[in-house]
Amino acid sequence: MLKQPQQKYRPFAPVRLADRRWPDAVLDRAPVWLSTDLRDGNQALIEPMDLARKLRLFEMLVKVGFKEIEVGFPSSSQTEFDFLRRLIDEDRIPADVTIQVLTPAREPLIRRTFEALEGVPRAIVHLYNATAPVMREKVLGLDEDGVVALVETHARLFVDLANARPDTQWRFEYSPETFSDTELPFAKRVVDAVTAIWQPTADRKCIINLPTTVERCTPNVFADMVEWMHRHIARREHIVLSVHPHNDRGTGTATGELALMAGAERIEGCLFGNGERTGNLDLVNVALNLYTQGVAPGLDFSDIDEVRRCVEHCNQLPVHPRHPYVGDLVYTSFSGSHQDAIRKAFAQRRDGDIWDIPYLPIDPKDLGRSYDAVIRVNSQSGKGGIAYLLEAEYGIELPRRLQIEFSQVVQAVMDDTGKEQSAVDIWGIFEREYALNEVSVAHPAITSVEPGVVSLGARVDAAGRQMQVEGVGAGPIDAFVAGLQARGERVRVLDYHEHAIGSGADARAIAFLELRLDDQTSLFGVGIDADIVSASLKAILSGVVRARRQPAQAASVAIVA
Ligand code: KIV
Ligand code: ZN
To answer: Which residues of the chain have pLDDT under 70?
Structure first.
């Protein structure tokens, strides 16, 4: 009978670990990082890296600060072998970096691996074989004793081949491949068999690396497995416990982090999570997450886009725009309420403050990004984003009620076009809506009539309508309004704001006047001029022009604060 999908899968079993300690652990230091971009990552590429790409990536990994780098699987192909030889023969391995190479538990391949390493000053040689029941039974045709014998034979060969090359500082690593699907007592038995032969010491520890070769359980169960191994394996004090998560369930990062809490001190993965199938653990993700706990990762991603460009070039694969920390969109908020919150928090932020900006877990500047993309305006945005862009890009601080009025104008454009609006687009809408280029005021003549009373005369142009405005009032604005009223314009000033744009000789003033026209319409006018009085008069004309527009064009919208 055909089974339902959920009936096809064996549920993963919880680990019996009554007094588990990892849930209370705090990550307070960076692990030892091992990049396997040039090995596991490379094995997973549609087109594996050529020599030039491998060299470029190796140099970048060194620059980022990796001290342990798995550079390949030298017995698997001539390119892999030649790349390793280039690193050694051309003396390209810095003194504080140790390269690592992988070999399966097969004698000819192990011999070829040591040959490829001839003359290297330091190296980690990484032995692996599968241990899970499905691999023992269906692939290797070995029982548990058979797997232990296989491991012991090849672990001994490591010792012999290393002893024959005493000029190199050798370190060994062992991975029970498919560990995450292996019974814990058997995993311990295999690991103990290896370390019994390698006899690690405090000065020459060996690495035991526990992979989720295929991620099949939740991160808490894997953490239990790691803690169980951490507490049960022999010679633990002379072992560097490492993990090697993959990402099949999409929880590679969580798996890695919980494993570190559970006793692992080293972690293997790839930049931006490249690797077989859904990838290896994303080292950048885990490293930068440490900042959120106030821990320095010890890797330098202060120009994360340079790292991304190199990885994209070498892997010939793009990084997703929403990829944590590095994607094009990850520091951008489109939603209006997020934008409002970010803008307010930025306005209150002072140098040296702890990073407390809502919706931005990390300061983009720490990764070499600017704040330019933090706020982008689309149909989901509100007044906050629009106000932010005008302020950030044009130095214009819209009064709150004008923000509300103008956001409805921008919203209407976005509803029409369905497109995101850049700062330049928004400025264009602002110029048009407030008729900034349609009004002018020539040389206003202001004279004092008596204390507290002035007369004003000005030649103005309001959207092609030229007129001489003459009036008397308590100040220039009052006199100008009186002059317009004398010409039949029913205009009153309700509120007034202005500020300088820029500084020094180029400084200009911007005036925002909320006006009542024809005793009914309330709207804003905006004027910009080097002279503050002219800016205010232009703002009044801007309001008059807007009110005279066809109703369909006018944005005399209700302002609901
Ligand atoms: O994923 C895996 O199990 C591996 C091992 C060789 C470490 O890549
Ligand atoms: Zn792997």
So the answer is: 1, 550-561
Q: What does the alpha-carbon distance between residue 493 and residue 482 come to, in Å, rounded to a whole number?
A: 11
State how far the Cα of 281 lies from the Cα of 289, in Å rounded to an integer: 13
CA distance 447 to 458: 12
Under 8 Å between Cβ of 159 and 197: yes
CB 99 within 8 A of CB 121: no
Q: Atom 5 in ligand 1: which residue has the minimum CA distance? A: 177
The alpha carbon of 4 is separated from its chain's Cα centroid by a whole number of angstroms, namely: 39
Cβ atoms of residues 72 and 107 within 8 Å: no
Q: In sequence order, what are the residues at sequence separation of 6 or more whose Cβ sits closer than 8 angstroms to the Cβ of residue 130?
A: 136, 139, 140, 176, 177, 178, 213
Closest ligand 1 atom to 175 CA:
7
Q: Name the CA dihedral angle for 316, 317, 318, 323, rounded to a multiple of 10 degrees.
A: -140
Tell me whether residue 39 is exposed, middle or buried, using C-beta atoms within 10 angstroms of its C-beta: 0 to 12, 13 to 18, 19 or more.
Answer: buried
Atom 3 of ligand 1 has which residue's CA nearest to it?
213
The predicted-structure confidence for 21-31, as pLDDT tens digits, reads as follows 999 999 999 99
Report yes or no: 260 and 31 within 8 Å, Cβ to Cβ. yes
Q: Which residues line ligand 1 (CB under 6 A)?
A: 40, 128, 175, 177, 209, 211, 213, 244, 246
**Backbone angles phi and psi of 168, in degrees to 5:** -95, 140
Q: Using CA atoms in the order 475, 479, 480, 486, what is the torsion angle rounded to 10 degrees?
A: 170
> Residue 530: its pLDDT value, please?
94
Amino acid identity of residue 55, one-letter, is L
Residue type for 388, please? Y
Q: Is 352 left (phi over 0), alpha (psi -120 to 50) or beta?
A: left
* Cα of 550 from ligand 2 centre, angstroms: 67
Residue 54's nearest CA partner among 86, 76, 91, 101 is 86
pLDDT for 558 equals 42
**Domains in the chain, please, with CATH?**
32-315 (3.20.20.70), 336-433 (1.10.1220.20), 439-556 (3.30.160.270)
CA 415 to chain centre: 29
β-strand partners of 525: 513
Note the pLDDT of residue 474: 96
Separation of alpha carbons 495 and 559, rounded Å = 14
What string of DSSP letters covers 79-115?
HHHHHHHHHHHTT-S-TT-EEEEEEES-HHHHHHHHH
All residues at 6 or more sequence positions from 525 whose CB lies less than 8 Å from its CB, including other chains: 434, 512, 513, 515, 538, 539, 540, 541, 542, 543, 544, 546
Which pair of tokens denotes residue 327? 């994607």
Whether the full predicted model's pTM is greater than 0.85, yes or no, is: no
Q: Residue written as tokens 């588990």?
A: 20
Please report the atom of ligand 1 found closest to the CA of residue 211: 3
Residues 448 and 474 sit within 8 Å (Cβ to Cβ): no
**Residue of 156, 138, 139 whose CA lies nearest to 148:** 156
- 8 A C-beta contact, residue 239 and residue 200: yes
The pLDDT, as a whole number, for residue 550 is 54
